[in-house]
């Protein structure tokens, strides 16, 4: 550990000048939420809203207990507990950086096989919300049709071993069983991942898994729990040596600091079965209609990330801001967003699609955010079906242009071949990398092979406008290079 003040409850009173700290007594906090998946995004987003609510002296009985179900989560737990679960948030504004220490999290359950400690914690009636950030690909969805994947080995294990589950969802079901049997109420199950209809998807997974072992419990959960949809938004890079050094630059020796952009948004369906914090007092939006907000964000921001990350990898552009600065990749973003994405997005109160595109362009272009193309390109097997292909289907249905999105898919296929145009190797970057790479290599000579991955594309291989454009782009990329294809599409010389 480098220099700086070690972060702990005891040192909060001595934070370096200019670093904002909690304005509440953490000893007064009691838990109300278990959050599974204590990554950077949760700590920069949902936990920050709660921290600022505590600053106002409100809802002090809603503090967070952290949790994880993967062996790697045990390392994060040790680091967090060593600094009393405090986090240094560093805001990366183009005009300058600022730091804030947040304290909404007060504990972290042991990470263990069978998840007994997590189940006990969630069964405590003081816990009224169990929330998750487990990534878009973590909900056991069949990408071909969006249904629950009951055949997955993890799900099969939990169906046979409901008392010693392997998944977060199995643990939640086990805790809800204990609460039902004890005559206690259910908790709200709250997804905070980038999925359209994330509450609906979480409900599908929980009820689908519960029905495999206990249909009666599934009925009880459906009747008594709640699954609010939400839209979450904040760009939060991964933490590495540079971020550790940033924290030390503020005089703090934080093992797990978080950097983030100077923007947050959280839109939540007001559907909670056991109460909720007053997040709206610190900037969140409660609404009965989350769909349009989440559709705007997922289509323009999340799909926009996929538009630029794959050519960025192929052309050895290391950061998202670097992609936006690249004359051809930036032009690709602007043209695809304006012509093929924004026309399929509805406005929301106070924001038209074109204005949101401009906002996202500014955010992606922020050079202070060192967000890597590799991070953004990760798990295309979930992100392309989830973010890009629904827009493509809308374009086909409406007769609108789809050439740009076909190029985006061709660039993904090119990236999955596993080499950049400078000859360097792209390290595996997808849960199904071996399969994607094998198909990408076959598609080099026969582009249709890529679209025959029905678990990704379904029936899109049979759509002539898309399949023909895809084949033309992939052929050109392999014969003349990605930049030639980008020039042809964007009209940039």
From TrEMBL:
This is Mannitol 2-dehydrogenase. It comes from Albidovulum denitrificans. Residues 32-280 form the Mannitol dehydrogenase N-terminal domain. Residues 289-478 form the Mannitol dehydrogenase C-terminal domain. Signal peptide: none annotated. Keywords: Oxidoreductase. InterPro entries: 6-PGluconate_DH-like_C_sf, 6PGD_dom2, Mannitol_DH, Mannitol_DH/Oxidoreductase, Mannitol_DH_C, Mannitol_DH_N, NAD(P)-bd_dom_sf. It comes from the Bacteria. GO terms for molecular function: oxidoreductase activity, acting on the CH-OH group of donors, NAD or NADP as acceptor.
């Amino acid at each position: 550990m480098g220099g700086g003040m070690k972060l702990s409850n005891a040192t909060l009173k001595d934070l370096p000048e200019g670093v904002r700290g909690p304005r509440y007594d953490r000893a007064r906090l009691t838990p109300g939420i278990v959050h599974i998946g204590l990554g950077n995004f949760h700590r920069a987003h949902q936990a920050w809203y709660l921290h600022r609510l505590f600053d106002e002296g409100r809802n002090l009985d809603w503090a967070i207990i952290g949790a994880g179900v993967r062996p790697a989560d045990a390392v994060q737990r040790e680091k967090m507990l060593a600094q009393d679960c405090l986090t240094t948030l560093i805001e990366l504004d183009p005009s300058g950086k600022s730091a804030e220490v947040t304290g909404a999290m007060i504990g972290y359950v042991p990470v263990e096989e069978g998840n007994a400690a997590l189940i006990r914690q969630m069964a405590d009636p003081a816990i009224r919300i169990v929330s998750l950030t487990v990534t878009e690909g973590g909900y056991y969805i069949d990408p071909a049709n969006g249904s629950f994947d009951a055949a997955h080995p993890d799900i099969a294990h939990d169906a046979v071993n409901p008392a010693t589950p392997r998944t977060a969802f199995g643990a939640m079901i086990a805790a809800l069983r204990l609460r039902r049997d004890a005559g206690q109420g259910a908790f709200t199950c709250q997804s905070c991942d980038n999925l359209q209809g994330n509450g609906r998807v979480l409900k599908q997974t929980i009820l689908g898994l519960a029905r495999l072992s206990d249909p009666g419990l599934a009925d009880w959960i459906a009747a008594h729990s709640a699954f609010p949809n939400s839209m979450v938004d904040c760009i939060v890079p991964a933490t590495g040596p540079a971020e550790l050094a940033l924290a030390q630059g503020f005089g703090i020796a934080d093992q797990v600091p978080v950097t983030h952009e100077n923007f947050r948004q959280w839109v939540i369906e007001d559907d909670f079965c056991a109460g909720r914090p007053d997040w709206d007092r610190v900037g969140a939006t409660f609404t009965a209609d989350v769909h349009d907000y989440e559709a705007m964000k997922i289509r323009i921001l999340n799909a926009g990330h996929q538009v630029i990350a794959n050519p960025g990898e192929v052309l050895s552009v290391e950061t998202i801001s670097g992609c936006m600065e690249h004359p051809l990749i930036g032009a690709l973003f602007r043209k695809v967003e304006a012509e093929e994405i924004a026309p399929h997005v509805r406005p929301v109160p106070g924001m038209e699609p074109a204005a949101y595109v401009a906002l996202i362009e500014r955010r992606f272009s922020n050079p202070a955010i060192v967000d890597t193309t590799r991070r953004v390109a990760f798990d295309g097997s979930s992100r392309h079906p989830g973010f890009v292909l629904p827009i493509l289907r809308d374009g086909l249905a409406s007769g609108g242009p789809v050439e740009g999105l076909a190029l985006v898919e061709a660039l993904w296929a090119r990236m999955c071949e596993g080499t950049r145009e400078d000859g360097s190797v792209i390290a595996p970057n997808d849960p199904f990398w071996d399969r994607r790479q094998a198909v990408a290599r076959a598609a080099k000579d026969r582009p249709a092979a890529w679209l025959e991955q029905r678990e990704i594309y379904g029936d899109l291989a049979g759509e002539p406008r898309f399949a023909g454009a895809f084949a033309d782009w992939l052929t050109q990329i392999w014969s003349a290079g990605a930049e030639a294809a980008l020039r042809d599409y964007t009209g940039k010389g």
